[in-house]
Amino acid sequence: MAWFGGSRSTAKVAASRDDLIMRAGLLLLIAWLLLAVALPLWTLLSKSFQNRDGAFVGLANYATYFSTPALFHSALNSLHVAAMVTLIVVPLAFVYAYALTRAVLPFRWFFQGVALVPIFAPSLLPGLALIYLFGNQGFFKALLGGGSIYGFEGIVTAQVFYCFPHATMILVTALALADSRLYEAAISLRASPLRIFLTVTLPGVRYGLISAMLVVFTLVLTDFGIAKVIGGNFNVLATDVYKQVIGQQNFEMGAVVGMVLLAPAALAFVVDRIVQRRQVAMLTARAVPLMPRPQAGRDLALLAFCLTIAAGILAVLGMAVWGSLIKYWPYNLSLSWANYAFGNFDANGWNSFANSIELAFGTAIFGTALIFAGAWLMERTRGFALGRAVAQLLAFVPMAVPGLVLGLSYIFFFNAPANPLNFLYGTMAILTLNTIAHFYTTAHLTATTALKQIDPEFEAVSASLKVPVWRTFFRVTVPICLPTLVDIAIYMFVNALTTVSAAIFLYSTDTKLASIAAVNIEDTGAVAAAAAMCVMIVVTAASVKAAHLVADRFVLHRFQAWRRR
Amino acid sequence: MTTAAESGAPAYLSVRALGKRFGDFEALRGVSLDMRQGEFVCFLGPSGCGKTTLLRAIAGLDPQTSGTIRQGGVDVSLLPPSRRDFGIVFQSYALFPNLSVAANVGYGLVGGKTGRAAIAARVGDLLTLVGLPDSGAKYPAQLSGGQQQRVALARALAMSPGLLLLDEPLSALDARVRVRLRHEIKALQRTLGVTTIMVTHDQEEALTMADRIVVMNHGVIEQVGAPDEIYRRPATAFVADFVGAMTFLDGRLESDGTARVGDLRLVCADVDGLAAGTAVRVAIRPEDIQVRGVAATAVNRIAVEIADLDFLGAFCRATLKTVSTGPSAGASPPVAIVADFSSNLMRDLDLAVGKPIAIALPADRLRVFAAR
Ligand SMILES: Nc1ncnc2c1ncn2[C@@H]1O[C@H](COP(=O)(O)OP(=O)(O)O)[C@@H](O)[C@H]1O
Ligand SMILES: [Mg+2]
C-alpha cells in the first residue's frame, strides 16, 4: 500500500484516524462513481464492438452504421441542427446579456428572471407550444405558406427557446467580469465606441462566447424531447438511439449511435474545460466592476430588444399553459381542467407526477449530501494523492456524457443478468442513481468552488485540538456552506423534474416520471394533456426556485448571523 | 551552524537533519535545531526561505522527506498531527466564522470528560488571559484583526499544548497593533512558560520577541543565536545583510592581516581565520562608524565626503564617498559607506551634503566574510 502515503519521497507518516476515515470515504466515493458512471459507460463501449450474441466483432457495427445512409444521415442532421441553433442563440443571448449587464434597463430583475424560465421546463414544452401555434391546426399555420412545423425548422425554433437561458447565463457571467479601468483607459485614449467594443468588450468575453457556443451545441445535439415531439420525419441522433433500442430492440446499433453521440459531446466538453481555464487566468483580483451609465439611444434599443425576447419566451410558455387549459383545440376554446385529469390519458395518471416529486426530493437530498461530502473529501484528504486524482477525474466524466447515452449504458450494465445489482433495474433507486450521476459534475464544481473559498486550515486546527475531522465537517464546514448546499439541492431538484433523456430508458410502469408521461401522452396525440403535464413540471420547478429566493431573503439569513459585521 | 543545545539539559524539541522536497525543489536541507523547554524561538528569513515548511513539518501537517523530530523525548517524526502535542495559530487565524468566540476557544475542550461549567470557566480564563473577557458571545467577523488574532491564540492555548506554533501571527495587522501585540504575546508566553516557535520575516519582530533566533535562507539554517548575538556577530554575510543595515566593502586580505578595499587598507580585529589573498567582504553597521574626535593617527581613518543625506526623523542616514589622497589617488573608484548620524551630531559638526569629513571604522566592529 505504498501509494497510500502520497508522494513517494515523503516520510510515511502514520495515518491518523481522521486520515483513515477520509481515505475510506474517498474509496467509497470512487466505488460509487465507478458504479454509477465508469462501469456502465465501459459496458456501452464494449457493447458497440459486439454482435447480438455478445461475440467481439471489432468495428463491424460501426461499419454498418456508416454505410447505412438512413443512420448516417441522422448524424449529419444532428450536426446541422446544432450548428444552426448555435448560430441563432448565441448572438441573441449575447445582446440580451449585454443589455442586462451593460445598459441601464428598467425592471432588470424581470428580464433576468424571464430569461431563466425555460430552464424550469422539460424540453418538449416549446415543441408542444409550437404545435399549437404552427401545427396542422395551429393559429399561424398560414404563415408557414404550406410548409410544416414538423422537422428542421420546428426543432430549431424550439431549441432556441430551450437553449437561450444556458447561453445567457454564461454570457452574463462573462460580461459581468469586465474591468471598468480598461474602459476608462480606452475612453481617455479617445477610442470610438465601436473600437472599444471590438478591442475591449469582445476580447474580454471571447472565452465566454466559445463556452456558450459549445454548451448550446452539446445541448441541441443531445436533447431528446424536442426532436421526439416536433421532429416529424427529420431523424436525429437522439431519436435514433431511442428507435434502435426501444423500437427495434437493436441494442448493438443503439450502442454505436450512443458512441457517435458521445464523441462530439465529449470533445466539446474537453475544449470547454481548456477554455474555462483561460477565462479564470484572465481574472485579476483588482478588477474594478463596471457600472453602466445611462445612454438613452442605446438603452432604448436594448430595451426594445429585451422586450421582444421576453415576449417570445412568455408567448411560448403562455401558449403551453393556455393550450393545456383549452377544452378542444381549436374547435372549442373554452377553458377547463379536463386535460389535467391525467388518468384519462395515461394509465399512470397523476402517479407519474408523484414519482417525479419523489425522484426530485431523493436526488436533491442524497445527491447534495453525496456530492458535497465527495467534494470535501477530494479537497481536504491528506495524502492519498492517487485516490484524490482518480475521484476528481471520475467526477468530471458525467458532464461529458449526454443523458441519453448514460441512460442507455445503464440498461447494458444493470440489466445484465450477471450483475448482482440487477434487482435495481426498474426501481426508483436506479432513477435516483442515474439522475445524481447525470448532474454530478456541475454540482461538484459548485461545491468545490465554495470549499475553496473557506480557510484551508480548518482541518489542521481541528487536528491540533484533537477534535475528529468529521465533527468539524458537520459543525463548521457544512453550516458555512449552507447557501451552496441549498443551491445544489435546488439544481438537482429542478433537473430531476425536467429531465427526459436518461430516464426514458430506465423507467418501469411503477416509476414512470411526469416528463416521460408527457412524451408518452403526446405520442398518443393528446397534445393538450402532454402540455398540462409539462405545465405541472414548470409550475413545480419554478415554485421551488421562487420559494428558495423568498426563503433566502427572509429566513435563511437568520442562520447566517455570523456573516454580519 | 550552531545547533547544539545550550548546556546539558535535554532539549524539549530536537530537529535532526530535516529535509523536505516538493518534487525536484528542495524546500529544506539538513535542518538541525534544539529548543529548550519554555524557550521562545523565532524562525526569521526572507519570504520563501522555508520557514512555514519547517513549522508545518514540526506540526506534522506537511511531513518531512527525511530527518527526525523529537518532542519531549519522544520521536514524533512519523506521528500524524492529531497525535502530536501542539497548538497553532495560522496567518489567516482560521477561526471558525460560524461559531462564537467562546465556542471557538472551547472547540477542543468539548467532548472530553470535562463538564459544561468547567469548560465555560476555562474559556473565560483564556479570554481574560488574552484580554478579551467580554467578547465570548460575539462572532469572529465582529472583531478587529488584532482581537481575532488573540482569539486564535486563546484557542491554540486551550488544550495547554507543550508547543505553541505561530505562523506570521502579526503580519496581517497594521503597524501600531502589531507593536502592541508583540509585547502582549511575549508577556503571555513568559507567564505560561510554553515553548514557542514563531515564524516571521520581520527582523524587528524577531529581535524584540525571541529568546533565540533561527535565521534561514534557501531552506538552510544560516545562524542560530540570541538576538544581540545575531545582530553583533552575524555568522554569514547573509545574516549580516538581512538583520539590520550593513555596508559591505569588497576587498582582499593582505599578508599582514589587513584588508585592502580599493585604495584603503583596513585593520580588522578578527579576520575569521581566513588566509591572506582571500577575497573578502568587510562589513560595518552604519551606527558603528565613528565621526566625533577622529584623531589624525586613528586606526582605519578615512577621508570622505558626504554624498547624500536621508532624513529619517531621529537620525540621518548618510552615504559617504571616499576622497582619494596620496600617490595612488584616482587609481580605484571611490568606495561608498553608509553611516547613521544623530541629530545632535549633525548640528554639532554642521554636516551637510558635499562636506568633507574624516571618519574611522573601529577595527573591532569590522566583520570579515569570505566572498562567495
Ligand atoms: N506545496 C508546495 N508545493 C511546492 N512548493 C512549495 C509548497 N509549499 C511551499 N513550497 C515552496 O517552498 C518554499 C518555501 O516555502 P515556505 O516555507 O512557505 O516559505 P516561507 O519562508 O515564506 O514561509 C517556497 O519556495 C515555496 O514556493
Ligand atoms: Mg510562510
> Tell me about the biggest sheet of chain B?
6 strands, mixed
Small-molecule binders here are:
adenosine-5'-diphosphate, magnesium ion
Question: What general outline of chain B do the C-alpha atoms trace?
Answer: elongated
The helix content of chain B is 10-25%
Order of helical and strand elements of chain B:
EEEHEEEHHHEHEHEEHHEEEEEEEHEE
Q: On the 0-100 scale, what is the average pLDDT of chain B?
A: 90
Q: Provide the number of structural domains of chain A.
A: 2
- Count interface residues per chain for the largest interface: A-B, 33 and 38 residues
Order of helices and strands of chain A: HHHHHHHHHHHHEEHHHHHHHHHH
What's the CATH superfamily of the largest domain in chain A, by name? MetI-like
Strand order of the largest sheet of chain A: 1-2
Work out the number of β strands of chain B: 19
Calculate the terminal CA-CA distance of chain A, rounded to whole Å: 48 Å
Backbone CA Rg of chain B: 25 Å
C-alpha-based Rg of chain A, rounded:
25 Å
Q: Helical element count of chain B?
A: 9
Indicate the structural class of chain B: alpha+beta
CATH fold name of the largest domain in chain A: MetI-like fold
CATH class categorisation of the largest domain in chain A: Mainly Alpha
Sheet-strand content of chain B, in percent, reads 25-35%
Oligomer: heterodimer
